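Hi R.,

Here's the input for the zinc ion complex you asked about:
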Amino acid sequence: MGHWAFLDSRLDSGGLAGYASFPLMDLVSLGWNTDFEKAFAPYQAKGWVPARLIRETPINYSAFLGDGEEVDVILSGRLWHTASCDADLPAVGDWVAVELGNENHDHVIRELLPRRTCFCRKMPGNSSQAQVIGANVDVVTVVTDAGPDFNLRRMERYFTLIGRSGAKAVVLVNKSDLFSPAECREAAAEIGALWSEAAVHVTSAINNRGLKVLKSYLTKGTTMCIVGSSGTGKSTLVNQLYGEEWQWTGEVNETTGKGRHTTTSRELVPLPGGAMLIDNPGMREIQMWTDETTLRESFADIEVLTAGCRFADCRHRKDAGCAVRGAMERGGIDPARYESFLNLESEIARLRKRMEKRQMAVERWAKRNNRVKARNLADRIQLEKDDRGEI
Ligand code: GDP
Ligand code: ZN
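And here is the predicted structure with zinc ion in place:
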């Protein structure tokens, strides 16, 4: 069994006490706790081992074992067949019970342990289907600023999602070097007033004032994901966390939605201090979900005025009796905002088109993946039968 000896002995002794002494990586650094240990107990008797999923590929999963070894694992046929929806299938961040294989047999995921927290999104167009974008995330950090990105409605939606998932919310009002201390304090206070459970901090990533705050949450065993609009400083912060070894690029592939890392494609990445970051396409998309509504809401005051336009099909440009244009001319609406309002519908149409195109690509991609997984499963079942001499 080689390196598995330590696991067996530890699990036999029960409790987490003797565990801190393992060097390199250990289950606790990976987020393992007494609840998972309890859930895992029945499987331990079968000789299976706990593992945490770090990546989903088109044909299988990758997982960290307790000693930090990275292995490929496949889904058992039973788990595949008994899953009533996508949310029942293992996802990045999940803890699973793995039956270890050997040269001739794959490592197999036999059981999915109950999730402590779960980030789900409803699939567009199919409201009953939910997709897990990250399991067992402890902290979600939202990065924003006190200026152009500041938007309480959007923040409220982040809080709804985070609250539903069961994770803790941390907000960084970043780029404090660009705003007055009073502006930053005020922005932080307004965000904090939305949800008393959220922790709000004023930071400046380029002055290394964000790193310290982030690190205070990244205690051993913590899994964090970082979300927020592009340009708020997420990559800057993450790259500071990792130093030179691993770089996160803000760039997202339009078709697959995948962010690009320069050195690894892992979606759950361990940090030096025994914490982890989850960064997968779904997490990055969070910022896109709400854009249309947020856009509309930021023009709600003008929308109200349109009721006063003479014609129902008023384009609010040169139309006679336009209440919106009238308000602008009387100085009630900033001319620049008026222009933005005129472009709002085409802005939204463009946004919608981009998301639809992207969604179609993602769905095609997911379908293909599922087919390949299913086909591989059938192949494997056949291979196992062959091995046993069955036909
Ligand atoms: P991301 O899209 O959220 O990953 O944002 P980036 O980390 O790529 O940052 C976008 C830009 O903002 C870059 O030019 C950064 O150098 C800059 N930036 C990040 N943090 C700060 C900060 O605290 N202050 C200032 N002034 N600029 C920052
Ligand atoms: Zn009008």
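One thing worth noting: The pocket of guanosine-5'-diphosphate (ligand 1) is lined by residues 174-175, 177-178, 204-206, 228, 230-236, 250 (CB under 6 Å).

Cheers,
M.
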